[in-house]
Amino acid sequence: MARNIEELKKRLGFAGPWSNRLAEAVTHRSYAVENNLGYDNQRLEFLGDAVLEIILTEYLFHLYPDAAEGEMTKIRSALVREPALARLARRFELGEYLLTGRGEHDSGGADRDSTLADLFEAVLGAFYLDAGFDATRQFVTGLIRDEYPDPRSLLTSINPKGQLQEYSQRHWGLTPKYSILHTSGPEHLPVYEVEVRLSRYNAVGRAANRKAAEGDAARQLYRYLSNKEPEA
After folding, report:
1. Which of these, 149, 166, 169, lies nearest to 158 by C-alpha position?
2. Any known ligand binding at 45?
3. What does the domain layout of the chain look like in residue ranges?
4. Which of 122, 172, 187, 222 could cross-link with 41 by S-S, CB 3.0 to 4.6 Å?
5. What is the dihedral of CA 161, 164, 170, 171, to 10 degrees?
6. 118 marked as binding residue
7. What pairing do the DSSP bridges indicate for beta strands 191-198 and 201-207?
């Protein structure tokens, strides 16, 4: 059962007045369909996405006066990727307030990065309509400063497999090898365990799909190798 939305209003830090838009923001399409509602959070998600983009664009413009347009675009893209937005959503435990249909609830949908990222944007859209642009900008930039003090550092985590490949080619002229070690969990919530091997080094990653598990393994191995003197 979803938590009381009045708690969420307090956690978001806006004293109000609030309209009913926040209730709309936490209404997943599956819940709306199952309960024959005439609304869900998709329109607010659309609005929140646009508001977030302009706020982040301005924020990065002032934060990195030396950055070229291409680099700022990449940083902004990293900040609006599902894992980054899901992290912001989890800070407020937004998934605890999300109304979902029975099937979505039973499959753990409220804790998926994709669902949480969409939910964060929808809540932001409601926040913007009720609190205004200045308050929304203050809310977003405060979150980014707390969670991502140096957003530029996110660029190294966008493509961990490519990063490891570049490192291995530069030092050894080798290509990392990936293999699935194990899969577990129910069909709707699988867990993949993937190993990456490079020269005499290896690391194991885990995630809900093979691609993400490979990325997790690559990230771990690159982090290890970049902190030691490479040996063949």
Report:
1. 166
2. yes
3. 5-157, 160-225
4. 122
5. -150
6. yes
7. antiparallel
pLDDT of 229: 52
For residue 201, what pLDDT is reported? 94
Looking at residue 37, its pLDDT comes to: 93
CATH topology (fold) of 5-157: Ribonuclease iii, N-terminal Endonuclease Domain; Chain A (1.10.1520)
| Regions of the chain short of the pLDDT cut 50 | none
Among all residues, which ones are annotated catalytic? 49, 121
Query: Per CATH, is 160-225 categorized as 3.30.160.20?
Result: yes
Question: Cα(143)–Cα(153) distance, rounded to whole angstroms?
Answer: 16
Nearest to 164 by CA among 192, 198, 211: 198
Average pLDDT of the chain to the nearest whole number: 90
Q: Please check whether residue 205 is in contact with residue 216, taking contact to mean a CB–CB distance below 8 angstroms.
A: yes
CB proximity list for 88: less than 8 A, separation 6 or greater: 120, 143, 147
